């Protein structure tokens, strides 16, 4: 396994296992499989609604907690100092651990400064070993790096061969922030897994397109957290340390960049409105469920 050293000296596995869109019913089994085949970095989030299953799996795995790099993320409805701090402590309870290796702010909206102050405090008392953000565009990342007391150590964003985030990577490197890729395969959109360039490169090394993509990320110095619910694919995704893409291969993949998100843009005002409406609806649903429970 390759490790990346964050700007505070903490070592992070460069290849981990993500549980986005892994159902509660499957999550415990999937995390156990991932740990058994060799993963030692697990990435979850409050918004995934599977922290408890991740925590149970880690406990059942009998892998020493100190050997696991555990990440979760604070969801935007918990932003603000008090709510963010309380939500992280609740995540610790659900994950059955007394510390996190990494905690991220999941979205660049609402009172992220208040939430960041909570992460800074929890970091300083040892509840979190490293803190960072997710989906922060360069302007907001530089803002936080410039004015916060503690700079982010990680920024987890959409990165894949069709959206390579070259500008974002330059700004992260300038401020010593580690780039981490969510959806490192672009969720297979735009026929990613049958892309002829990636397939041709894979054939040269006897590797799959998925392995070529992961190897490309690794050679760019990017942390990746591929997700699969199939044990054999989890194993396949780990088998990327026995070959190296040539400079020509890297150039060919660089030429695939469309510089366009396969999902959505966080700096689109309509998308910000959508997030705000979603958060408000979740709050309404939470209050309704609480009232029903107390009835």
UniProtKB/TrEMBL annotation:
Gene3D superfamilies for the chain: NADP-dependent oxidoreductase domain (3.20.20.100)
Keyword NADP in record: yes
Coiled coil region boundaries: none
Residues annotated as binding substrate: 106
Keywords: NADP, Oxidoreductase
Keyword Secreted in record: no
InterPro entries, alphabetized: AKR, Aldo/ket_reductase_CS, NAD(P)_OxRdtase_dom_sf, NADP_OxRdtase_dom
Site positions for Lowers pKa of active site Tyr: 73
Domain NADP-dependent oxidoreductase: 19-257
GO MF assignments: oxidoreductase activity, acting on the CH-OH group of donors, NAD or NADP as acceptor
Entry annotation: catalytic residues: 48 (proton donor)
PANTHER family reported in the protein's UniProt record: 2,5-DIKETO-D-GLUCONIC ACID REDUCTASE, NADP-DEPENDENT OXIDOREDUCTASE DOMAIN-CONTAINING PROTEIN
Family: Belongs to the aldo/keto reductase family.
Name of this protein: Aldo/keto reductase
